[in-house]
Amino acid sequence: MSLARRRPGSVLWMVLGVGVPLAFLAVFFVWPVLAIIGRGLFGEGPLLEVLTRPRTLRLIGLTLAQAAIASVVCVLVGLPIAHVLYRLRFRGRGLLRALVIVPFVLPTVVVGVAFRTLLREGGLLGFLQLDGTFPAILLALVFFNIAVVVRTVGGTWEGLDSRQEEAARVLGAGPVRVFLTITIPRLSGSIVAAASIVFLFCSTAFGVVLVLGGTRFGTIETEIWLLTTQFLDLRAASVLSITQLIVVFGMLLLAARARGRSTAQRRVAARLSSRPPRRSDALPIAVAVVTALLLALPIVSLLLRSLQTRDGWGLGNYLALSGTGTRNALVVPVWTALGNSLAAAAQATVLAVVIGLCASLVLSRTPRSARGRRALEWFDGALMLPLGVSAVTVGFGFLITLNQPPLDLRSSPILVPIAQALVALPLVVRTVLPILRGIDPRLREAAAVLGSAPWRVMRDVDLAVVARPALAASGLAFAVALGEFGATSFLSRPDRPTLPVVIFRLIGLPGGDNFGMAIAAAVVLAAVTVLVIALVERLRVGTIGAF
Question: Which residues touch 339 (CB under 8 Å, ≥6 apart)?
């Protein structure tokens, strides 16, 4: 163990760096999840009675079907896009790469509202008559998750050596055979990893499904929300939460195995790669442009519809955001809800970044003993647990645990930021930790030998190096918290609603004015989110790379 770690002050930092994150997870994650499991397994009534209900079976099947179909479509559509954007060179490629990422960073409520405006009667694609149908949900899920496939597979594909394919063509193999027998096997790890992540996101796409499908095409998550908020059937909601936990953790294990295989493929590709991507001809460029237009269509439709009022084109919907809607549909004006969202996101960002930095500083060290290394691996895995539980389950768990002394937080404004911080914490760790692990440990040891106290070593070495990535992690956490809807839909109070909750409420109320306000509010939320993510990208920290 290094000299810096033998100091008493260093031990204190280590204890705080481990104790604070673990205490946070224990109180606000482990306890609520275990409470859900306990209520589901040992509550009143037989467990199988809930699972064998016709509606429950239909919703489980619908959840798995929608996630599976959307994953397959994302892979089929994403592979050619990844080839164009990562294997070919042409002017404007960087702009198209950025455009592909935009749908993924949008809040799920915004994506749902955008497709409502696109597919409803009078929308740009209203003639397809898909509004309120199962294909509409699939289209929105593919739109939302296509970036995962493009970025994950494209990153591997970009580094592959093209000489194997060229040699096969010289020997007489056709393009299809080359692709199926040489390219696909080398990309298989990345493809499986991307597909499993897409499946995970699609099976927990609460906001998109709730806005587009309602209760008709509900999923496990929307049913949990319905059983809790409408029917107060907490036992059935707990059983469904357990079911979802099993599905999600299964996909996480598959994604972890595939990601390890994908990482190995990238390392091999990096060693073998010797040629830059080749220049493209007109056809791939045309494919890329058409793809960009299709991805931009829902956003353009949302923006155009926000400018349509009963009196024609104008800013009436935006001006109405200072009010409470037709017949006082809202308790507070939309701009107040935006202020609530910004405040909650800022608090969640502070929590996630402080706890994430504490944990990352500990994880960046390499103990000499095998037991110490194993302990850090378990600690790292514990920090990633919130990725394996949907935000809906977190919000539901808060409702049934944080409602009595000594932690009665039902009326506390900090409850929403805590839930949002849980969602953002793994992303902060995954953004900051690789930078800290890249620091030469001899720098810390030299500073300690020169007499620097542990806190000063940490300040002058670790925090100095990680300052810029920490800013990017803060922006990423802020954007995630700003658009979070799953947990917030359970926890947001009527007098302190967040903007996603207000948008959902407005689209569920009658009246064209309320719907127009919802669309304008969605544009505002999308603009703020994209602006924050643009700042993150400017700091050279990828959004999807955090996965």
Answer: none
Residues 6+ apart with CB under 8 A from 470: 353, 357, 432, 463
Q: Are 454 and 385 in contact (CB under 8 A)?
A: no
pLDDT of residue 257: 66
Cis before 406 (ω within 30) = yes
Residue entry with tokens 């970009």:
158
Judge whether 417 lies within some domain: no
- With CA atoms as reference, report the closest residue to 296 among 1, 118, 99: 99
Q: How many CB atoms lie within 10 A of CB 507?
A: 19
Classify residue 21: in a domain, yes or no. Answer: no
89 CB burial (10 A radius; 0-12, 13-18, 19+):
exposed
Given this model, what pLDDT does residue 528 score?
93
Q: Which range has the worst mean pLDDT, 249-263, 428-442, 480-494?
A: 249-263
Average the pLDDT over 23-37 and give the result.
Answer: 91
Q: What is the CATH number of the domain that holds 251?
A: 1.10.3720.10
C-alpha span between 324 and 334 (Å, rounded)? 7
Rounded Cα distance between 440 and 258, Å, is: 30
Q: How buried is residue 216: exposed, middle or buried, by Cβ count under 10 Å (0-12/13-18/19+)? A: exposed
Closest to 166 (Cα-Cα) out of 183, 154, 153: 183
Domain assignment present for 421: no
How many structural domains comprise the chain? 1
Q: Measure the CA–CA gap between 265 and 532, rounded to whole angstroms.
A: 32
**Rounded distance, CA 113 to CA 453, Å?**
54
Q: Tell me the two tokens of residue 281.
A: 């001809």
- Give the model confidence (pLDDT) of 369-378 as tens digits: 888 888 888 8
For residue 255, how many C-alpha atoms fall within 13 Å in the half-sphere facing its CB? Answer: 20
Q: How far apart (Å, rounded) are the C-alpha atoms in residues 332 and 345?
A: 18
Residue 309 bridge partners (DSSP): 312
Domain that holds residue 160: 54-301
pLDDT at 511 over 70: no
Of 251, 480, 244, nearest to 356 by C-alpha is: 480
Is residue 117, in this structure, part of any structural domain at all? yes
List Cβ neighbours of 439 (8 Å cut-off, separation of 6 or more): 364, 461, 462, 465
Distances (CA, A) of 482 to 337, 342, 356, 424: 11, 7, 18, 10
Please check the confidence at residue 547 and state whether its pLDDT lies above 70.
Answer: no
Query: CA separation (Å) from 503 to 140, 408, 506?
Result: 17, 28, 5
Measured between alpha carbons, how far is 355 from 104 in angstroms, rounded to an integer? 25
What is the number of alpha carbons within 13 Å of residue 94 lying toward its C-beta?
2
